[in-house]
Amino acid sequence: xHIDDYRFGKIVIDGQTYSSDVIIYPDKVDPxxxxxxxxxxxxxxIMKIVSAKPDILVIGTxxxxxxxxxxxxxxxxxxxxxxxxxxKTVKAVEIFNRQPADKKTAxxxxxxx
Length: 113
Description:
By secondary structure, the chain is α/β, with parallel strands linked by helices. It contains three helices and eight strands, in the order βββββαβαβαβ. The chain has one domain: MTH938-like (Hypothetical Protein Mth938, Chain: A), CATH 3.40.1230.10. Helix content is 20%, strand content 28%. Strands 5-4-8-6-7 form a five-stranded mixed sheet, with helices on both faces. The chain has a three-stranded antiparallel sheet with strand order 1-2-3, with helices on one face. The longest helix has 9 residues, at 71-79. 31% of the residues are buried.
């Protein structure tokens, strides 16, 4: 998967445009990602990602970085053997696109705030 473009409220993945928060798996996109507490990422919000067992998870926290990723959530991800990057979405997109093809990479992107 490749992210072609990101702008506030919109992301283009492999030529397909999405206007809501997304999870990118190595083989598909979930275009309807919702979190229990909106701007606070919890373990429950990423269970499907962790179950997919990626090597890497890139988290985009929004254009201004409003979505919080508590240390507890980060440690949960890492305890499952997943390397995690947490950045504002613009930077997270760059990181996602730079991951090596031989690594199973997932992404969770908040597109607004």
